[in-house]
Amino acid sequence: MGVKRDFNVKVINTEVVAAMLPMQEHWLPQSNLDLLLPPVDVGVFFCYQNPNISGKPKFWSFESMVSVLKVSLAETLVSYYAFAGELVQNLAGEPEILCNNAGVDFTEAWADVKLKEINFYNPDESIEGKLVPKKKNGVLAVQVTQLKCGGVVLACTFDHRVADAYSANMFLVSWAEIAQSKPLSQLPCYRRSFLFPRRPSYYDPSIDSMYLPISALKQETTNIDHDDQIISRIYYVKAEEINRLQSLVNCNSNTKFTKLKTFSAFLWKTIASGTMEITKSANSKNFKLGIVVNGRSRLSRDGDEEQARVLKGYFGNVVSIPFGDKKVEELKEKSLSWVASEVHEFLERAESKEHFLGLIDWVENHRPEPALARIYATNEEGHAVVVSSGQQFPVRKIEFGWGEAVFGSYHFPWAGKSGYVMPMLSPKGNGDWIVYMHMLKGQVDLVEATASNVFKPLTADYLNLE
Does the pLDDT value for residue 379 go beyond 80? Predict the structure, then answer.
């Protein structure tokens, strides 16, 4: 059966779910790394087939599934109390989390579509505004939608200023564990002292090339075609294609590149090459590619296993976005191994404890003025794409008792013109990747036209949906 291009979603009920235990109202300050995030929301969703066709001994009604989700969410919010609070400004105009147990908006909905009819390839059409909730209050919103086939879609939207994807993943796994009465595999940590600035502060001047105060943004118009629509698409990439590309770059290099570096280099080169073919005037333009780096494993003291363990559970934003900036012509003409080497080089600058300590100090020196990653400065010249690794996306662990998710993805259709790409492991567990892309339509068209052997539109057939 083909995809259903249009379907309706009806809200059945919306209520607020708060932490099941009372808590003393308190303020949780944002760390310096939290302050680098703009006010944007991030979505994530999980799809479950009708549990009553799998031969499970227990019958699951939609009402019983909703009940499990609400009760376990209320218990999970006891530990993840930041998600039950509100983000407000302090006297300096900076955001802080008011931990007041205001709760989470929880919406129950019904959609007149079967799971296998959902157009996963085009989430702008099927997911946005329908299955992933718009956050109206607080820090986190949840929506659970029953489908015509008896399947369910569970989706969350959270404020990126409060949590990065790593933190959201911890929360989702904990929620699923509590639903199944399992002990938490990871407790969240809110010790902001891990991210305190040093006295005296110090940072390498290279950080000035990666981040900038908002006031430093260029205001003049650039030559970029900002009329180009930005769209979202989801693909799958076969494991053998990933391995083939990795073998290709590694056979001509002394450095052994990871799959993520290989993928990022391939994407960078593919878009640049296609851009040059279509627009000869683009030859002299620059094209930035950034990769999100998680700093948790890099901030602990050498040999301090206890600090490493606690930092592993740190809740908040602990990311940096180093990037490379190359001419389009150069990216096309050089080999894929050369492009991968450039990716490796700019990533190395951020994969150290000193880089993250320096970034914390840099923010301190610029407070209270807001700042952001330079690659997100959309009115600077040249195109830009950010790759955020979703290799730790725990889609198969988000199991609430009625079976594993048959599909899950992040959904981040933010308004900026910098592209956003997240490769995640396929729920099949066979080494394939699921790739969420949110980029200019022209860039997406180039990827599909020149790399269709690698990026395959995600379909119900691939997911084996019944």
Answer: no
